Amino acid sequence: MAKSASLLLLLLSILTIAAAARNSGASNFIKSKCSAATYPDLCVQSLSNFASTIQQNPRQLVQTALIVSLSRAQSARSFVWKLTKFSGLKPREHAALKDCMEEVGDTVDRLNKSVEELKRVSGSKKKDFLWHISNVETWVSAAMTDENTCSDGFAGTALNGRIKSSVRARIVDVTRVISNALSLINKYAENQS
Is 27 helix (H, G, I), strand (E, B) or coil? Predict the structure, then answer.
């Protein structure tokens, strides 16, 4: 019995070391690819939790970056929607929030399309690859524009306050994550062409 327990512990140790080595390789891969992103530290931070999924697969890295962007955009949309329900909002704040919610909704739609379009890239011919990846790049770029438009709605001093700073903080985060995803997509497209 002691021998089988020792063997089991040895086997578990070997498996643990192998898993750690795989995750270390994936983490290094993520760090390497994120070095070309607009916000490298944020890129690494937002993708590191998915190292075991990403491994060292460039397409999976891009797919995960898009999914992370989509998740953050959905969270921002929910946050802005909740803010529209606050009582005591100034009319301009309410209008800016409604406009922002529409823009963030457009971002979510475009990122959803991008995630689906990227799935079509796998195994496609070069001509088809270029078509699909171009669509992804266009929609992700448009998603960034939507986020910037939301933020622009709070320009000027008339809307200064907690609502403005809360929304802007969320939107800046989403925009940066999308920007990183776009950088990774562009690099992926460049390497595949």
Answer: helix
